[in-house]
Design goal:
The protein contains 3 helices and 20 strands. The chain is mainly beta. It has one domain (about 1-359). The model is unreliable at about 1-60 (pLDDT under 50).
């Protein structure tokens, strides 16, 4: 089980929040946009081998990347009502030669540090600690990971710097490396009016840190015979009933539809369309009541099958399309995203410029 868990952690340590995005499933068979830092925005923990996030998570970056600097720019109107390009800051992530992130620092437009993360790994290559620092280089939280390789599981604990537990979650994998169960445990607020240096406070921390009994939330995952996710189900901890559910459907091992339900009532439906080579060409969204098409995204690729443009549409009457915006991508010689520009209508409103340093 060590191999699977280790593969799962190869790249995601460079993202802001390690586990906040596991619902945003991107299938390598469905969306071939896993170049550069796009993978970080859509990374999935569900499996390291089920065809999600391009298989091995570091496959999204090409070449041996030593450092990535992501500069963000925004277009804002000046007093004359003219859009002007303004620098918003940057985020710099450094990597070891094996592809594991070591540090991530975000900067404001004036160059001052906004936040910083550092990552520590065990001998197996799995992240065991993430330290978070604020703008004044003060450590604010730390997240520790405790692995049980024989059982195929690990526990995540986020601490405030004084030792008080802020979050606690457990992740359980099956023997094929699929994430099957995510359990979030109840966390109480810090006590008020107690000296944090007192023995009483230290005893409260020790007692709280060993308590793993009260389940706050639970998510279970199922897979089809080919290892593709079939359902993601959020359970009500009161009676273990399905509170929210997302269902994935496939044709020829390609994702063709997702549906989300809340208390068995349809909330969203999305369909996916492909060309003959397997590139995703469109994602269509439908109204959950009328089941009419309400919006769509169209994807365009270059000869190397890399995404170069997304176009966003609003759909009228299920037929007439009106473009609302687009996003364009350019790549460096290694095949990593070098620039991403987002438009509202025909006007650009944000740009990300990625600068890479390679080993």
């Amino acid at each position: 089980m060590y191999r699977v868990i280790s593969a799962t952690f190869r790249f995601i340590a460079s993202c802001d929040s390690l586990f906040a995005r596991e619902r945003r499933v991107i299938f390598a068979t469905a969306v071939k946009v896993m170049s550069g830092l796009i993978i970080c925005a859509a990374v999935s923990l569900i499996s390291a081998s089920a065809g999600i996030s391009g298989g091995a998570l570091f496959d999204g970056l090409h070449g041996k990347v030593k450092e990535v600097s992501v500069e963000t720019w925004a277009y804002r109107k000046n007093r004359m009502g003219i859009n002007q390009k303004q620098y918003d800051g940057k985020t710099v992530t450094t990597f070891r030669s094996d592809g594991r992130a070591t540090d991530r620092t975000s900067y404001l437009s004036d160059g001052t540090v906004r936040a910083k993360y550092s990552y520590t790994y065990n001998d197996q290559g799995d992240v065991i600690r993430i330290d978070h620092y604020d703008a004044y280089d003060r450590k604010t939280t730390k997240t520790l990971y405790f692995y049980d390789y024989a059982a195929g599981s690990f526990i995540e604990k986020e601490y405030y710097e004084d030792g008080w537990v802020n979050n606690r979650r457990k992740y359980v994998y099956d023997d094929k490396g699929h994430l099957r169960d995510k359990i979030s445990y109840h966390v109480t607020d810090k006590p008020v009016g107690i000296d944090e240096d007192s023995e009483e406070y230290k005893k409260l921390i020790a007692a709280k840190d060993t308590d793993l009994d009260t389940v706050f939330a639970r998510t279970v995952y199922t897979f089809d015979d080919r290892g593709n996710p079939a359902e993601i189900i959020d359970l009500d901890p009161k009676d273990n009933s399905a509170y929210e559910k997302t269902v994935y459907s496939y044709l020829d091992n390609r994702l063709v539809q997702t549906e989300s339900y809340k208390r068995n009532i349809l909330r969203t439906r999305e369909k996916f369309v492909y060309d003959k080579t397997g590139n995703l060409t469109a994602k269509e969204s439908y109204d959950p009541v009328s089941l009419k098409k309400i919006s769509a995204v169209r994807y365009f690729h270059n000869a190397a099958a890399r995404l170069i443009r997304e176009e966003f549409y609003r759909v009228h009457g299920g037929l007439a399309y009106a473009i609302t915006g687009k996003t364009t991508y350019t790549y460096d010689a290694q095949g990593n995203v070098s620039e991403k520009t987002a438009y509202s209508g025909s006007q650009p409103f944000s740009i990300e410029i990625n600068r890479y340093i390679y080993y």
